[in-house]
């Protein structure tokens, strides 16, 4: 009996001790360590997940997709969970398009001990096939990719994106904020088996659609003509712009050499020559000199000038493109024949100060406001920096630098009755029309009409572009050929060849400019190199846009 009582006492003592230990542990867990344990529990069961926003699309004026974001995934591996790296590599290689040896190396020599990326932005269909394999240690993470369905179409204009999806160049950069959208940051609560049981927080807000004024069909045709011209003449580069002179809307903006829009690295390093190339315009600039003198009442289209074979201006001797005896030319003939000497004489009538003011009035030396990154404003030196011979070269488009877009905009003012428009390439963002500044009057309607008539003569029987014709349409335009400055001096081998013009002459609805940098093979003149390309583009565009003959 005494032995049994002692055993019961021992058991009660042990039980009391265990109860005391349990009580102490409970106090520790519920009171002393409650905060730390709660944090650990939250880390294990509550996770904040960043949900990327879908980047907005870029479409042409008809709604056709030019840039779109597609679902894609990154494939990652946790090396410690991979049993047989070689077998895994063999399974994934044909799906990911990555050599077996490369995958094996990535798994066995990871960039981080617990994680390594095997492939980036694989298409949704491929991701589904990888997911179906249910390979331990392999995970897929959403990483949408930017796709340009038409590859080369307007690549430099559209631009590209960085690996993280943000804008790198072109429209993608200029409107990155609107395209990017707003990512969502959601808290996800998981149960003991790792299944989500509650989700809270804002969902991602998709980016806005950016609608351009470009027309895909017209852009594609213009691209093909510019590419063929650049290749034919082995040019350094070439560009073309198709323009609505009445509104300033850009319907096509092409560049050569071509680049694939889906290759962001090449796109980022390829300039948009249409608005980023500074070049000396040559004879296309003569309308500024003549337009200024007409506006100031110094001349009329019928005013005549004595044109010798050469003209001394300070330390420079001016020549026309071809030698000729002394002749009498009217203002209209000076423009039609593209007489350098005649344009310089008109420039001398204007004088340095007024010529400079008219150059600025036509928009040169200032950004056009097209809203494309990388736009250049050209170089127009102030009169204080002119030399004695500047009045002998600036009136004919030398000694100043412009962009093709500036020239197109200046000619639009002649075409539309004297209003200098703001060129634009974006029509709406998120369905809301983009505000375009009002056009600024720089010429009277009468002077603009006089210039149009004289530019029509450039394509007439005695003009420098007499071979350029489009059946049913009266054309107006101007050739340009300018020596390039190489090593500080004007080259006699490298030129800028250009042509700019519009149609129909009486009521212009369409305009285009073509500029070819350093054509090779013997043909250097705007008439020979740029004008035929302009004719092809305009012929197609007039028919395609159903512009009535006139």
Question: How do you describe this structure in short?
Answer:
The protein is α+β, with helices and mostly antiparallel strands. It is built from 19 helices and 23 strands.
Word description of this protein:
It contains 19 helices and 23 strands. Helix 3 crosses helix 4 (100-108), helix 12 (286-295) packs across helix 14 and helix 12 packs across helix 15 (352-361). The model is unreliable at 40-44 (pLDDT under 50). A hairpin with a 2-residue loop joins strand 18 (426-429) and strand 19 (432-433). Helix content is 36%, strand content 23%. The N and C termini lie far apart (130 Å). 44% of the residues are buried. It has 550 residues and is α+β, with helices and mostly antiparallel strands. The strands form seven sheets. A six-stranded mixed beta sheet has the order 7-3-2-10-18-19, with no helix packed on it. A five-stranded antiparallel beta sheet has the order 12-11-23-22-21, sandwiched between helices.
The major beta sheet can be summarized as: 6 strands, mixed
- What general outline do the C-alpha atoms trace? elongated
Give the strand content: 15-25%
Helix content: 25-40%
State the helix count.
Answer: 19
Cα(first) to Cα(last) distance is: 130 Å
Unreliable stretches covering 5 or more consecutive residues: 40-44
Structural class: alpha+beta
């Amino acid at each position: 009996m005494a032995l049994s009582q002692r055993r019961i006492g021992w058991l009660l003592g042990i039980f009391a001790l265990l109860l005391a230990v349990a009580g102490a542990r409970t106090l520790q867990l519920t009171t002393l360590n409650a905060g730390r344990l709660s944090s650990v529990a939250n880390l294990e069961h509550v996770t904040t997940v960043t949900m990327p926003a879908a980047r907005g699309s870029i479409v042409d004026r008809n709604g056709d997709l030019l840039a779109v974001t597609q679902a894609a995934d990154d494939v990652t591996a946790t090396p410690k969970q991979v049993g047989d790296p070689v077998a895994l590599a063999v399974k994934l290689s044909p799906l990911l398009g990555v050599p077996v040896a490369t995958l094996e190396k990535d798994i066995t020599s990871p960039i981080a001990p617990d994680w390594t990326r095997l492939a980036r932005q694989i298409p949704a269909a491929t991701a589904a096939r990888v997911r179906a394999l249910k390979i331990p240690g392999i995970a897929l993470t959403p990483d949408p990719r930017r796709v340009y369905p038409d590859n080369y179409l307007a690549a430099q204009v559209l631009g590209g994106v960085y690996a993280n999806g943000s804008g790198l160049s072109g429209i993608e950069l200029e409107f990155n904020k609107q395209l990017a959208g707003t990512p969502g940051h959601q808290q996800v609560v998981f149960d003991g088996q790792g299944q989500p049981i509650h989700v809270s927080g804002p969902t991602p807000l998709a980016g806005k659609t950016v609608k351009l004024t470009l027309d895909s069909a017209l852009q594609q045709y213009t691209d093909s003509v510019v590419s063929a011209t650049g290749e034919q003449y082995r040019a350094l580069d070439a560009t073309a712009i198709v323009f609505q002179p009445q509104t300033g809307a850009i319907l096509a903006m092409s560049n050569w050499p071509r680049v694939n829009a889906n290759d962001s690295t090449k796109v980022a390093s390829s300039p948009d020559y249409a608005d980023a190339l500074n070049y000396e315009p040559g004879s296309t600039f003569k309308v500024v000199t003549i337009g200024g003198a007409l506006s100031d009442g110094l001349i009329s289209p019928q005013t005549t000038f004595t044109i010798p074979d050469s003209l001394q201006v300070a330390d420079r001797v001016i020549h026309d493109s071809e030698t000729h005896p002394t002749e009498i030319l009217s203002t209209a003939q000076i423009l039609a024949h593209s007489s350098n000497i005649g344009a310089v004489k008109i420039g001398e009538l204007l004088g340095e100060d007024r010529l400079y003011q008219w150059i600025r009035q036509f928009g040169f030396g200032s950004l056009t406001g097209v809203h494309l990154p990388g736009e250049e404003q050209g170089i127009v030196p102030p009169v204080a920096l002119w030399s004695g011979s500047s009045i002998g070269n600036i009136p004919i488009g030398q000694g100043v630098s412009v962009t093709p877009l500036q020239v197109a905009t200046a000619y639009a003012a002649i075409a539309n009755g004297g209003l200098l428009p703001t060129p634009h390439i974006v029509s709406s963002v998120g369905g809301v029309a983009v505000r375009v500044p009002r056009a600024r009057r720089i010429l009277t309607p009468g002077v603009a009409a006089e210039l149009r008539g004289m530019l029509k003569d450039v394509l007439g029987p005695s003009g420098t572009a007499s071979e350029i014709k489009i059946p049913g349409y009266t054309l107006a335009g101007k050739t340009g050929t300018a020596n390039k400055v190489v090593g500080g001096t004007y080259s006699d081998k490298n030129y800028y060849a250009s042509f700019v013009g519009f149609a129909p002459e009486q009521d212009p609805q369409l305009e285009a400019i073509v500029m070819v940098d350093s054509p090779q093979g013997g043909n250097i003149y705007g008439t020979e190199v740029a004008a035929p390309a302009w004719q092809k583009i305009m012929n197609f565009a007039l028919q395609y846009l159903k512009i009535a003959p006139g």
